[in-house]
Design a protein that fits this description.
The chain is of the alpha/beta class. It is built from eleven helices and ten strands.
Length: about 300
């Protein structure tokens, strides 16, 4: 019997390329194809996310929509006519900080493709004509400077003149824009005054609150709607819950400042899933539609109250 030959010893590292480079350990995945949900941390294919209006298919979390994406989700195809696109911010107080205001504006425009933090115009929403405005929280946190206030005021005034409902979709974590000083604070009064005239004309204002809607925007026009609705689990308030807790040194209720909490306490009219928002806005507009040839009962009742009747 032949004697068994010992098996040759093979160095396991021989002819094997070992690399610690991250690019060698991980298969390259093209960027821009996937998004991680902020709520459930699930990875969602971007195309599927866009088809679902940027709502997470796993947990129903409503992610941020850009201003033009929002317009596309609400307006009938090819019906949106943008207003005041050319209006843009300057540097009225020559603000200087870690970054000059003019430089920040240029960076934000390049990053978002927007001229400023709001888009306004007229559109059909399931056949109902309306004036719409959408703030974009990606542009300097959706804060309200002179341009945001001016464009919204012009949109409201057009709605008053044309006797149309005005719909403003708000998303802002920054309130008034500090880079413009007191001029930004003046926009709170200006937009509110325009809405008061719109109300006296007997026309409808629907305020739509998204995550987040805070500070000066919440303290002005966003809180003045004839109908106020919000998307699910949106953060809504003047200042954040952490600051409030630190100030009053008390534990806040669960869900404090969420849209569901505000609905339960009577501050909101409805919480509406983004998929249903267009149809609900069209319904509200049709329900409150007025005949331009007839004086408005709402305007009349307001005048009567002023006379003490």
């Amino acid at each position: 019997m032949a004697e068994a030959q010992p098996r040759p010893q093979v160095d396991p590292t021989e002819n094997v390329k070992i690399s610690t480079a991250k690019s060698d350990r991980k298969k390259d995945i093209p960027k821009g194809l996937w998004t991680k949900c902020d709520a459930c941390f699930d990875i969602v294919y971007n195309k599927a996310l866009e088809e679902n209006l940027r709502i997470c298919p796993k947990c129903d979390h409503h992610m941020t929509l850009g201003a033009y994406e929002r317009v596309d989700s609400l307006a009938d195809p090819k019906s949106f006519e943008e207003m005041d696109f050319e209006v843009h911010s300057i540097d009225p107080i020559k603000f200087q900080g870690p970054k000059a205001y003019v430089d920040k504006l240029e960076d934000e425009r390049a990053r978002t493709g927007l001229r400023d933090a709001v888009v306004t115009g007229t559109a059909l929403i399931e056949g109902q004509r309306a004036v719409i405005g959408v703030t974009d929280s990606r542009f300097i946190m959706g804060s309200m400077g002179s341009v945001v206030g001016e464009k919204l005021t012009r949109a409201i005034e057009l709605a008053t003149k044309k006797r149309l409902p005005v719909i403003i979709v708000s998303g802002s974590g920054g309130g008034a824009r500090m880079y413009e000083g007191a001029l930004s604070l003046m926009q709170m009064a200006k937009t509110s005054a325009a809405l008061a005239r719109h109300h006296r004309a007997g026309q409808l204002f629907i305020s739509v609150l998204t995550n987040p809607t805070m500070a000066g925007i919440m303290a002005s026009y966003a809180s003045l709607g004839d109908i106020i609705v919000a998307e699910p689990r949106a953060l809504i308030g003047f200042t954040g819950p952490r600051v409030i807790e630190q100030t009053i040194r008390q534990k806040l209720p669960d869900g404090f400042q969420t849209s569901e909490f505000l609905l339960e306490h009577g501050w909101l009219d409805q919480v509406i899933n983004r998929r249903d928002l267009k149809s609900r806005l069209a319904y509200f507009s049709a329900m409150f539609k007025k005949d331009p040839a007839k004086p408005s009962s709402r305007a009349g009742s307001s005048a009567s109250r002023k006379k003490g009747k």
